[in-house]
Amino acid sequence: MCVDGFERVPRGLRRVIRWIARWRGSDLVVTSHRRLCGFEVLRDCRYDPGSAKALVQACLTRVPDHVRRWFQDRVDLESRIRDADNYRELMSALYDDFADEIAG
Which one, of 54, 60, 55, 58, lies nearest residue 74 by Cα? Predict the structure, then answer.
């Protein structure tokens, strides 16, 4: 079982989810923006501006040239990275920039 945003699940429901995973004999993998007691950390993905920039640049290698040029000309990546608190927020802001451009 996989639960995204486990820290937002009420404590009582967390216990139920853990019980269901044990009952089904399945592993439980969760994502969280903070450490949670009782879970082994498999991958620490705390927000890091250096890796955020590398991630965005890697994503840009997979888009058409005109999108990459638009992005490089119109988006202040450094300020977007600085303003974001996590990767999801950064990617959402960049998507919103592009969606706003398309909408006109």
Answer: 60
